[in-house]
Known about the structure:
- By secondary structure, this protein is α+β, with helices and mostly antiparallel strands.
- The protein has helices at residues 17-25, 38-46, 68-78, 86-108, 114-143, 155-170, 179-189, 192-198, 210-220; strands spanning 6-9, 31-34, 57-60, 63-66.
- Strand 3 (57-60) and strand 4 (63-66) form a beta hairpin.
- Helix 1 crosses helix 6 and helix 5 packs across helix 7.
- The chain is globular.
- The structure holds glutathione.
- Residues 14-15, 53-56, 67-68, 220 line the site of glutathione.
Amino acid sequence: MSEKPRLIYFNGRGRMESVRWLLAAARVEFEEIFLDTREQYVKLIKDGSLMFQQVPLVEIDGMKMVQTRAILSYIAGKYNLYGKDLKERAFIDMYVEGITDLMHMILMFPFSPPEAKEKNLALITERATHRYFPVFEKALKQHGQDFLVGNQVSWADIQLMEVILAVEEKTPAVLLAFPQLQAFKTRMSNMPAIKKFLQPGSPRKPPPDDHYVSTVLKVLAEE
Ligand SMILES: N[C@@H](CCC(=O)N[C@@H](CS)C(=O)NCC(=O)O)C(=O)O
């Protein structure tokens, strides 16, 4: 039996949260090591665990994987969440990259200075409403299936679900004009693996707070 993947990151969402989502959707149990101190991070660099001196780090199948997208595509490929042919993969990749661009704005938001918060929040809502969500609304409608690509759940669906919930936390009414996305959210929430991940006590992390922000800044701070 292969060992459980080991996730090494901060005790918070950041770039690792999509990995947690994808593993949870694939019903893969995993272990986590949380970085709380600069010493832990420096040790990882010194022992050669971090190819580019950056986290996330995921130990899986004998590899020390870095680069979030590489980690996610490995998991998606391994657990049949990456389409059935090259064309399906191409669409999954396009959807995932779009979602990642929106998600990046969300994960950087807690680190923005107080005077930029209002503007950045408005930009997230604007981009979700006018650039990203309309694409997925239209895709679901035209495709006529429960999922974005093909007729089975993929990496793109999991990341779309993650970003929908993340934007809703900031702007609760954001889905009002998107009936397809509302129905998609309900369907995804009812999938047993996702349902479990959304329940309290799962490895899903809460929205970032001041403690999370100060820990990240402390751990990554240059001497
Ligand atoms: N392209 C990388 C970026 C990783 C990254 O920027 N990680 C941050 C923490 S979330 C980090 O380790 N920063 C330290 C540094 O860049 O020196 C990925 O997607 O995994």
